[in-house]
Amino acid sequence: MSRVLEKLGLWACALLLVSPALLFFLWMISLSLKFEIDNGAYPPILIPDRFAWKNYLGVFESNSFLLYFWNSCVVTGAATLLALLVGVPAGYGIARMRADKAAIIIMIARMTPGLSFLIPMFLLFQWLGLLGTLVPQIIIHLVVTVPIVIWIMIGYFETTPVDLEEAARIDGASPWQIFLRVTLPLARPGIVVSFILALIFSWNNFVFGIVLAGRETRTLPVAVYNMLSFEQVSWGPLAAAALVVTLPVLLLTVLAQRQIVAGLTAGAVKGG
Amino acid sequence: MLPALAVVGGVIILPWVFTLWMSVNEWRIGGAAHRFVGLENFARLLGDARFLDSLWRTLLYTGLSVVAPLVLGTLAALLFEKKLPMRGLLRGIFVMPMMATPVAIALVWTMMFHPQLGVLNFLLSLIGLEPQDWVFSPATVIPSLVLVETWQWTPLVMLIVLGGLASLPQDPYESAQIDGASAWQRFRYLTLPMISPFLLVAVTIRMIDALKSFDIIYAITQGGPGTASETINLYLYTVAFTYYEVGYGSAIALVFFALIIALSMLLLHLRQKSALLAGGLK
What is the pLDDT of residue B179? Predict the structure, then answer.
């Protein structure tokens, strides 16, 4: 009997602990589905009598939303793939050569405020005349994605055994062959983890966009912020837009929870 | 390998060299040509009241944003270590705040903070508390932002501590059980000392992230009301990208970076000290 009570007590505590997150997202959904009159009601209404689906329709119908969505996909996609291309071999090199100094540089890059990269890069892009394009954002997002990938991959390569690589070398495989045929397939789980985390932190990035993005090159986080500051938008449509922006990331979090937890606790990295 | 390392160098090291160069110049975008001024920008910082205010504010904000998630995150880890029904689902919901897009979250928090229509003041009224001005008053803006930061980043502390708890040996607990130690004694004299390296990692990471915090503060208050929530990072943004004083901004960036490194080294030093102490006790 006391066993059951203890279980119930623990469960109640866990529920209490989770409730700020749970209630927040429920409230976000509620805000996004209410008409203005319900959002202004006091006491607040959690579940309205009628749902304002038009808030979501409004988000998708504005033609600039699709443009910003596309921009986000291009910037995040390119920055993540480039980071894998660069970061996986770099992580492998650092782990195998035990290049601790290089590892420290990556650590320092993680400690550096994103804004301090932004000042020199901004001037550089201005000189090169690239500011109207997506290229500056792709390049500067590498500052977020590359350290994440390298950091996770170093940890991963350090734990994978070198025996198989040795065996391949004795059989006469070239270093490049060993890397492609032996190391890379073994490292796939690590690559998946770093891919997911790089994707999320690049998608979420805001500070680079507010400086580098023009009207045509905004990513979604910048676009949704601009809705707040430049237009008199009511709460319902704003909450709907916010939810649409963050929904891909939330879905990924739920689907890939195990990998995300593994990646965050291994390197405990965050970009920005 | 080499080309990869070269790219890393280009993206990470080159901007630093350039920042160093800019910091010793008077340099304005769209202004006159830049001019070498030596350490003048750094001297100017010492007399810049707005910078000094933002420095103390940053330390206050960081201190609060480390302690609150540390305590709550450790509690959460102790709870999530137990076998609970639907533990996976609960943990999934719990980590959502730190993965969600910060700007999107910030917009919803802004609505919740609203003094008249916000849901937070309604919740306060349910438990009989006075309504607050939250982020709309200089007196409460920092604690309100720390509330958001804590809500967002407690899960990260939880995950790190949970990793620590999973690595603990079981034997000491069995002997403690036999000796009749209470749950609190087991936590205080067994768990806490053994997970302290993990707590230190959590503190370090939390501290670095809180010092650098930008998205949440910028999206909710833009450093306001007035400059009541302007941290160094926000001031740096204003100087570099509102006033376009990139020379002075670079100097701020360097000092800011030095602060982050110094505080991190301090924690690292503490770690060695505690290792020494532990060794001495044996």
Answer: 86
